[in-house]
Write a structure and sequence with these properties.
The chain is mainly β and about 550 residues long. The longest helix is centred in the middle third of the chain and has 6 residues, at about 230-235. The two termini are about 25 Å apart.
């Protein structure tokens, strides 16, 4: 089914003069980092144009020139080097685009490790671009981008200190836009975590114990359990560091993993596994991976995207205190099967953080961390001495992720958990368009993450926008909201995981600036409300000629 609309009203045409440039707020200068190139990453929540780039002078050294690299959705949009400072740009960023902005001062002969960066942070850092809230994350290029040859590769987005680039933007005229707003109902992530930003240490978790009771599709977390035991693993276990690692991103046991076959399978939220992959950085994966990437094996410079399963192995992960440990300098990783619980136990004993040799870097801290998984899938975590030293850029995560890119939960204070239950993995409907609503084109309105066995999915179209949404409790859908007026409804039966509606936009300039809103819905007998329905976020579309 293809939809075409006759619009009965037209909003005023956008002004033809270019709006003033606006400087995107970034964190203040904290420290100079000399080495690889650094910057920031964000997912655009609106459509805008990058009009100018400049570098703060905090990291400038005599003879330096400015270099810039901009990637949009992984594709290079700009590589400029040898500049005296600011450069003019004309980079259109559309809502939903993933953007990397990297910049640094470079010496006369740039190369592998010669970039001069002004650091700020930590990230994630909340800012605004053209009045719309955005979140900046750390990103980089493992080379000096001032080198015309541009060796190396990208450092994936992470938490931690970011490179500071002054980015100026404007809202373009004559450009069609699409912006998501609100949120779908019944979002219940399985994830639970606390992220300790660099160089913070979880002092409130040292010498504590935690029990994670497995319910079949979630964990209940309560304080208490067996204390850290270093003697029994040393007497009864095997030291994994004595053998060969299965994968490594460093060709050493620093940032490496080893796969172990379990005597008995272990259930976890989302599945059951007969193998686990133990990582040197106090975490393990539920399953087998031989991926050699840093995303899988490393844990420094922020590790949230791999933890969520968006990078690296994508496997479900238990991060006991995933931080940048370096067992090549000493310590043991003891492995016991069977463990005292009858399952399997891992003990990271006497391992210090990787020590950054840069001047002013914090000292590495000893870590003693233990995880015991019982045959029923429950776990205990015991901490002795733990810390996040060694570098000003390394964070640490405590928590569980179901992997596979499943939705992230809101961070929690782990030390305050008493009877906390993780989610069941339910995810909300999402609505978006595959392209901007340009006049004279056909775009697809896509409702994603439709629950399995749904009877009907649909898209509500309306000229009215409700933001915040109107609660739908009275219709038997508590927690759900209406974000668009119901002027037209397009539905499909037995839709599958994704439902799409083509929208044909007439080639009529009278539609310039017209506002159309959309929202997804689904009916499913498994939805726990009287209406047996769920709704998505809202989607605002403003039509234009480009």
């Amino acid at each position: 089914m293809q939809l075409s609309f006759r619009f009965l009203s037209v909003v005023a045409v956008l002004a033809t003069s270019l709006a003033a440039q606006n400087l995107v707020p970034i964190p203040a200068h904290a420290v100079v980092y000399n080495g690889f190139s650094r910057g920031f990453n964000f997912t655009a929540n609106s459509t805008f144009e990058i009009t100018q780039l400049d570098l703060p002078v905090d990291a400038f050294q005599a003879g330096d020139t400015a270099a810039y690299l901009v990637m949009v959705n992984g594709v290079q949009a700009l590589h400029s080097f040898g500049n005296v400072g600011p450069i003019a740009t004309n980079i259109l960023v559309s809502n939903g685009d993933v953007v990397d902005v990297i910049g640094n001062w470079s010496p006369a002969v740039p190369g592998n490790f010669t970039a001069h960066n002004s650091y700020g942070g930590p990230t994630p850092y909340a800012t605004t671009i053209e009045g719309v809230a955005h979140t900046l994350n750390r990103v980089g290029w493992q080379w000096d981008i001032g080198d015309p040859a541009l060796g190396g590769a990208i450092l994936a987005p992470t938490a931690g200190s970011m490179g500071r680039i002054e980015m100026y933007t404007t809202t373009p005229t004559g450009t069609a836009t699409k912006v998501a707003y609100g949120e779908g109902c019944y979002d219940d992530p399985r994830m639970v975590y606390e992220d300790f930003p660099a160089p913070a240490s979880p002092g409130d978790l040292s010498n504590t114990e935690w029990t994670m009771v497995f319910t079949g599709d979630s964990y209940i977390i309560i304080p208490g359990g067996p204390a850290f035991d270093g003697a029994t693993p040393a007497a009864n276990g095997i030291d994994l560091l004595v053998g060969a690692y299965t994968s490594s991103s460093s060709a050493t046991w620093d940032d490496a993993s080893i796969t172990q076959t379990l005597t008995n399978p272990i259930p976890f939220p989302g599945g059951t596994t007969s193998t686990i992959t133990v990582n040197s950085n106090a975490k393990f994966f539920f399953g087998q991976t031989v991926d050699t990437s840093f995303a899988t094996n490393g844990s420094n410079h922020g590790n949230f995207a791999p933890f969520q399963g968006l990078q690296g192995s994508g496997l479900a992960t238990l991060s006991a205190f995933g931080n940048d440990l370096d067992p090549t300098t000493g310590g043991n990783i003891w492995y016991e099967d069977p463990s005292p619980s009858g399952g399997v136990r891992m003990t990271w004993a006497g391992i210090f953080n990787w020590q950054d040799t840069a001047a002013g870097a914090p000292l590495a801290v000893r870590n003693d961390i233990q995880v015991d998984i019982d045959p029923a899938g429950g776990m205990t975590i015991a901490f002795g001495s733990i810390g996040n030293g060694g570098s000003a850029s390394n964070n640490g995560i405590v928590g569980f992720s179901a992997g596979g890119g499943q939705a992230a939960s809101q961070p929690i204070d782990w030390s305050g958990l008493v009877g906390y239950q993780t989610g069941t993995g339910a995810i909300p409907l999402l609505i978006d368009a595959d392209n901007r609503p340009v006049i004279g084109t056909t775009i697809n309105i896509i409702v994603d993450q439709v629950p399995a066995n749904s009877l009907i999915a649909g898209v509500v179209f309306g000229t009215g926008m409700f933001n915040p949404g109107i609660p739908l409790d009275a219709l038997g859908m508590p927690g759900c909201s209406a974000y668009a007026s119901l002027d037209l409804l397009a539905t499909g039966v037995l839709p599958g995981a994704q439902f799409s509606v083509p929208l044909a936009i007439p080639a009529n300039n009278a539609l310039i600036g017209f506002n159309l809103n959309a929202q997804g819905l689904a009916l499913n007998p498994g939805i726990p409300n009287a209406f047996q329905g769920i709704t998505s976020n809202g989607l605002e579309m403003i039509l234009d000629v480009n």
